[in-house]
Amino acid sequence: MADNRRRRMISLIVSFLFSVSLSCLCLAPIPASAHLKFGVNGKFKILQVADMHFATGATTRCEDVLPSQTAHCSDLNTTAFMSRVIAAEKPDLIVFTGDNIFGADAIDAKKSLNAAFAPAIASKIPWVAVLGNHDQESTLTRQGLMNHIVKLPNTLSQVNPPEAAHYIDGFGNYNLQVHGAADSSLQNKSVLNLYLLDSGDYSKVDSLNSKYDWIKTSQQFWFDRTSKRLQKEYNAKPNPQVGSAPGLAFFHIPLPEFWSFDSTNTTKGVRQEPISSATTNSGFFTTLVTRGDVKSVFVGHDHVNDFCGELKGLNLCYGGGFGYHAYGKAGWERRARVVVVDLNKKSNGSWGDVKSIRTWKRLDDEHLSVIDTQLLWNSSAKGLVVPRL
Ligand SMILES: *[C@@H]1O[C@H](CO)[C@@H](O)[C@H](O)[C@H]1NC(C)=O
Ligand SMILES: *[C@@H]1O[C@H](CO)[C@@H](O)[C@H](O)[C@H]1NC(C)=O
Ligand SMILES: *[C@@H]1O[C@H](CO)[C@@H](O)[C@H](O)[C@H]1NC(C)=O
Ligand SMILES: *[C@@H]1O[C@H](CO)[C@@H](O)[C@H](O)[C@H]1NC(C)=O
Ligand SMILES: *[C@@H]1O[C@H](CO)[C@@H](O)[C@H](O)[C@H]1NC(C)=O
């Protein structure tokens, strides 16, 4: 009798421990030290998801779809599109560039965030997010939102960089390093640097007469310092490299320089609405061009603009609206941007530094059509700027 009870107790404890360890395995976040790296195919692929505007799920209706589509369309179509595009592209990283949730229609910000990111979490692919101007219009502040996001499974998001947390404006400023291919001489070096920034929500400075916020001096200072530190590491032994590794920047609100393009001179894609940048210019474009490492900026915010344009060696790209509860244009498919970075192959067959940065978009139509494929940058077209440390 006593023996039986003990055996049952032991088997209960064992199965309890087993299920605890299983759930820990599934929920364990990717450790912050786990850096990203190029694949053995010499490629690193990013999926940009802009403006999901997720609210409550099945009960949240779609905006701006064809009359024939209205009856059977909800937030779940946003979820389905994400699952499909992740399966089709198999990216190495998913970047959400803000307005992940539409706060005004979200009853519980945590639930909406969890549901919005669910397909990315389920894919087990590392993902990161920054905030837009609508995320905080529900039950969490911007800080509260980032605090929640960084705890979700498989994310590499950060609230703010530890070394700058005491001075930087906003929540969700951080950088990610992408190391060279495994077993190559650059496996321990960042050959591609990603900068994620909080472009804020609405201006709090009445006299500047700007509706939208901007990237503050403190953030530009952090970017400049980080870019210089990364270049020093890139140039250092062992395997010292020349110049700086290329970078990509992701945030929500376009820079005023996006106004430089009309329908005649975007390189690919369309401009179908005005640019909702701040009406004041905080100088981030100048900061980026001066440093010279960032080759392209990717934003969201204006859902029916999906162009890239090049100005002074810097590409300015929109992701194009992704979410069905976001305003859009009926009959103009929701879309996502893909960015692929390729490495140079050395004469002995091993992978080297970055060769090119390409992009295209995927439409949420029957075949997930690929459109607007273009080269954004290649290493034979080195910029005019030689960044100085
Ligand atoms: C939304 O999803 C439903 C259910 O799968 C589907 O019938 C409908 O065509 C989708 N609508 C759009 C606009 O994709
Ligand atoms: C290929 O050449 C590079 C130098 O260009 C060297 O660092 C690397 O170890 C070589 N790889 C192999 C597999 O021989
Ligand atoms: C990279 O770092 C690992 C671990 O410290 C080391 O074993 C390896 O030799 C390094 N590779 C190169 C190319 O520096
Ligand atoms: C695009 O064309 C407009 C005039 O149509 C011009 O004002 C603008 O400077 C051009 N932009 C670039 C980047 O060339
Ligand atoms: C590299 O970029 C330059 C400048 O944009 C372009 O002229 C050249 O054709 C590109 N090279 C390749 C191989 O695509």
TrEMBL record:
Keyword Iron: yes
Family label: Belongs to the metallophosphoesterase superfamily. Purple acid phosphatase family.
Domain (Calcineurin-like phosphoesterase): residue spans on this chain: 44-304
Name of the protein in question: Calcineurin-like phosphoesterase domain-containing protein
Cofactor: Fe cation; Zn(2+)
Keyword Zinc: yes
PANTHER family assigned: PHOSPHATASE DCR2-RELATED (PTHR32440:SF0), PHOSPHATASE DCR2-RELATED-RELATED (PTHR32440)
GO molecular function: hydrolase activity, acting on ester bonds; metal ion binding
One GO CC annotation: extracellular region
Signal sequence, start to end: 1-23
Complex and partners: Homodimer.
Subcellular location: Secreted
Key words, A-Z: Glycoprotein, Iron, Metal-binding, Secreted, Signal, Zinc
Alphabetized CDD domains for the sequence: MPP_Dcr2
Stored InterPro entries: Calcineurin-like_PHP (IPR004843), Metallo-depent_PP-like (IPR029052), PAP14/16/28/29 (IPR011230)
